[in-house]
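Q: Given only this backbone (338 positions), what sequence would you predict?
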């Protein structure tokens, strides 16, 4: 089964061709980072217009690189939420047009479910139930996955998402956008015990997160240095901040696995590309005898291969969307609105 996947929820225009949810024939990711960089974040109107300019050529590139034409596609999958409404609409319209024109099934995919399924490209039959730590630019969720396509939200952030905290701290450090990869790189050169930034564990047994405290602590620290005229050691700040965030993420993911008696842990979302998070979770899961599954770093951030993979499992269940499918900017994981 060959599925064409389309992803336009934020600032990546991505189209992929994936066979049987496992074999990536192409995965074109056209990032708009340069366009948004000068604003320090994604500008929704610009993102939407850029998607519109790019979508047809990215579809063409994906088919070319996969060396197939439209007639060989069995279904078209598209992200219809959550995300920026104008950005989503471009992908949804393209997906619907292709499905209608070729008379093939349309599959509507939740962007966060796509992030989860980035894991399944390499691991099509993981051992359920699974605890998945979803950490991205807009989400920080701990999810229990009892079987394919079923999700129980165990906890999430009460303020900033993990990726958002990385981006904001990078900004005050004068690093570029997106900030996660920059902090990750700089942190490798610093001492993570240099500065004691706070870790928010919230109430006992809570699987919720909070990252606004650690973010504010970094800002206050930088202001204090400036007032006192003390030079800032940026690698130390980056390393200490990254350590504070990763400690809480790893502790809570392992706590969830214990609480729900699961043997498999998955990482998903852009922050899953973080080197310390991957290393630390891998080290500590191994001690506990848990299986850790992570997507390769390139499949952690937004891409259409993960959308086509999630769609393959919906295809097997004949879970198709009608051609009236619309963008749903606030779509929740586990709910379908079509
Ligand atoms: P969402 O998926 O919640 O809708 P999004 O699609 O904007 O949000 P992703 O593309 O999944 O988010 O991830 C982007 C985020 O991941 C950014 O906040 C970025 O800084 C962060 N990120 C990417 N690489 C790393 C890294 N190595 N370390 C930490 N954070 C990272
Ligand atoms: Mg992005
Ligand atoms: Fe994303």
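A: Predicted residues:
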């Amino acid at each position: 089964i060959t599925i064409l996947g389309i992803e336009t929820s934020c600032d990546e225009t991505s189209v992929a061709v994936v066979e049987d949810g496992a074999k990536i024939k192409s995965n074109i990711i056209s990032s708009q980072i340069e366009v948004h960089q000068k604003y320090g974040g994604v500008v929704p109107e610009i993102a939407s217009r850029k998607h519109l300019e790019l979508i047809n050529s990215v579809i063409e590139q994906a088919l070319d690189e996969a060396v197939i034409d439209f007639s060989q596609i069995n279904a078209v999958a598209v992200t219809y939420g959550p995300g920026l409404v104008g950005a989503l609409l471009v992908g949804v319209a393209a997906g619907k047009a292709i499905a209608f024109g070729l008379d093939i099934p349309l599959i509507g995919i939740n962007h966060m479910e796509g992030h989860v399924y980035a894991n399944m490209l390499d691991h099509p039959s993981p051992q359920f139930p699974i605890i998945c730590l979803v950490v991205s630019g807009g989400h920080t969720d701990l999810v229990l996955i009892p079987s394919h396509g079923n999700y129980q939200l165990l906890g999430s952030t009460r303020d900033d998402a993990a990726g958002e905290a990385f981006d904001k701290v990078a900004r005050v450090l004068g690093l570029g956008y997106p900030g996660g990869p920059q902090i990750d790189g700089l942190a490798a050169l610093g001492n993570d015990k240099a500065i004691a930034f706070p870790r928010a564990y919230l109430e006992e047994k809570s699987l919720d997160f909070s990252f606004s405290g650690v973010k504010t602590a970094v800002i206050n620290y930088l202001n204090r240095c400036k007032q006192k005229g003390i030079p800032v050691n940026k690698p130390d700040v980056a390393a200490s901040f990254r350590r504070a965030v990763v400690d809480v993420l790893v502790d809570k993911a392992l706590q969830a696995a214990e609480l729900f008696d699961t043997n498999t842990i998955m990482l998903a979302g852009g922050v899953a590309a973080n080197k310390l998070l991957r290393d630390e979770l891998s080290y500590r899961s191994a001690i506990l005898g848990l299986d850790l599954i992570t997507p390769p770093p390139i499949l952690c951030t937004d891409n259409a291969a993960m959308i086509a993979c999630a769609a393959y499992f919906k295809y097997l269940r004949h879970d198709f969307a009608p051609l009236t499918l619309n963008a749903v900017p606030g779509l929740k994981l586990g709910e379908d609105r079509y």
